[in-house]
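Posting this for the archive.
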Amino acid sequence: MPERSPETHVIDFRAAEQLLAARDPRGAVKLLDPLIAAHPENTAARLLRARAFFLAAQLRPAELEFQVVLEREPDNAFAHFALGRTLERADRADEAKRHFRLAAALDPRPDYVAAARFDS
């Protein structure tokens, strides 16, 4: 495969966003894998790939990718919320609750607060 240029990586990232919006998470992962291999520090690409894994019901890869994002951006409310959803789908509700509560504390959006279930 020929070497990819920075412009090509941007095009692939945008195309992966479109594939995810069109409910083709596996197609998005295929575009993101080489981008992340070339730029493992790219948190935005990792977050997008985590979302794609989640939508493809690949829960363990999604969990690992969300964890990488949170290591780099511990104040990323969306990543905490999405990791919570991932853990919830994997029947790990106690672990999920912690991330839902962190998400709600960082950003009190109604969906984050509802998921956090502070009243229970």
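The mean pLDDT is 94. The CA atoms of residues 91 and 119 lie 21 Å apart.
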